[in-house]
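During the reporting period the student researcher (J.K.) took over the structure-prediction task from the postdoctoral fellow and processed the backlog of single-chain submissions. One of the processed entries is reproduced below for the supervisory committee.
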Amino acid sequence: MMFETSLTVSIHSNSAQDAFPPACGQHVNLLRSQDLETFCAIRADVYIDFEFEAGESYLSRLKSLQPAVLLVNAVDLTLEEIGLDVARFNGWPGFGFLEMLELSTKDGQVPQVLERFAAGCGFSWQVVPDSPGMIRPRIISMIINEAYHTLHEKISTAREIDTAMKLGTNYPFGPFEWAERIGVKKVYGLLEKLAKTDSKYAPSPGLGAAVQSV
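J.K. obtained the following structure tokens:
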């Protein structure tokens, strides 16, 4: 019986990050690390960086990994802003339970090695426009923002809002639970960036206060 060549996938993530993918078949070797040096030292076909930073030295380190396929968790930065030949993905905590990866790629094309990776690990992807916030993070951030508006106006409590959203919409988390998992600073940062071109995304006073208290 013939077996296809195995893939090696290097994943850079911290202990609080949702495991993605949780497990793969025998032809995909997942190697997880919590520090950049170990992540980069692994000889891999695919590199997935959940801890991506846009600093010059960090980008230079990642550039040394090319031409291997590189996926970076960059929800609020576009590919043009990153300036490297990479694919962006939504790697915010709280989204890892889904079996679908939200991707923005150059020209909307997905490298063949990613197709093999997805097939070997039982997930799919959705290519989305290369815009700040992608799709799900943008929507969830707006829901979180509205929840903080509601809390700030003392219409309801955080616990009641979370319960109402989970029971009423069948969401896995309420908006404050989402905010805790993602991090209010990330949510605030995305909304602040989106608000520069559309005022409807302006962060609520309540969300701003939550960021200040962190």
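The committee noted the following: DSSP finds nine helices and seven strands in the chain.
J.K. will present the remaining backlog at the next meeting.
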